[in-house]
Amino acid sequence: MKFPETRARRLRKTAQLRDMVAETKLDLDDFVYPIFVREGENIKNPVESMPGIYQLSIDNAIKEAKEAFDLGIKSVILFGIPDKKDEFGSQAYAEDGIIARAINSIKSAIPQLVVIADACLCEYTSHGHCGVLDKNGNVLNDETLKLLKKEAYVYAKMGADIIAPSGMMDGMVKAIRESLDENGFYDVSIMSYAVKYSSSFYGPFRDAAESAPAFGDRKSYQMDFRNSKEAIKECMLDMEEGADFLMVKPALAYLDVIRAVKEKFPYMPLAAYNVSGEYSMIKAAALKGWIDEKAVMIETLTAIKRAGADIIITYFAKDIAKMLRGET
Ligand code: PBG
């Protein structure tokens, strides 16, 4: 087709006109806010590599969740830092474990808030891997599934609305679905970290969650960043196993993958995780005065949505909510 005339600038003339023709608009409903919870009382430890983010004791985590909810954020995702770690990550599925209690307390305080429980073992194991190890240090897949089943059951029992398995074990979605259904939690959904790359952008998170592996890396379970067609396979497997949401993680260096997954499975709600390293880079450059933090934040989040994400998990959630409400 040939356009009758070639002027494109006419629609960019004023802010109002640009708003009218904008294809992508951020909305308060788009965001999930991650919260790090640790043992103790009245604790608010700054995470050095993530300005504005804290490890919080449950009392303060409730306040933080309430603040986010009052700003219009619909959902939080919780990560735990236990006092005691062991080989089997038992605090991940203990009924009095840190996240079990955090879910219960937050849901009791703010019942309407959608609570997502990240289900993994790396924050709870002494070796920092996302599962049980054999004597050579390899992660045992099916042994790990048994523990994930317990973890999902406990989190559902404590009131989690969504279980988000992030360990990239084969069959994790099926195992968790079985565990939830066997225990009558038919309405608890699963947001699978279906496409999770082995990425260096997780560095600051591992400071925040104290979950860096003690040896080796996560390349035998997380995806190789050279691959994108494999992302489609990962999604198909997880959908067959019963995933209710898909996720691509990280987001920024993987916008092509977000787009590919959305085009292939438009009917699946798709989350993108704007991970710690992506947050820290913007914060660090802004602190140096090298970029305009607010502007870069909006551009970044809009790009993630434009690529195809329906939901964005981001440490910027409160900041962007304030902006969208016209408060900053
Ligand atoms: C746990 C988990 C990780 C992140 C979310 N869940 C760390 C990892 O896989 O090493 C990273 C999130 C971020 O960097 O913000 N498995």
| Overall residue-averaged pLDDT value | 96
How much of the polypeptide forms β-strand, as a percent range?
Answer: 15-25%
Overall number of domains:
1
Tell me the major beta sheet. Answer: 8 strands, parallel, barrel
Structural features, described:
The protein has about 325 residues and is α/β, with parallel strands linked by helices. The protein has one domain (about 30-325): TIM Barrel (Alpha-Beta Barrel), CATH 3.20.20. It contains 11 helices and 12 strands. The protein has helices at about 15-20, 60-70, 100-110, 140-155, 170-180, 205-210, 230-240, 255-265, 275-285, 295-305, 315-325; strands spanning about 30-40, 45, 55, 75-80, 115-120, 130-135, 140, 160-165, 190-195, 245-250, 270-275, 310-315. The longest helix has 17 residues, at about 140-155. The relative contact order is 0.13. The structure holds ligand PBG.
Short note summarizing the structure:
The chain has 328 residues and is α/β, with parallel strands linked by helices. Helix content is 38%, strand content 17%. The protein contains eleven helices and twelve strands.
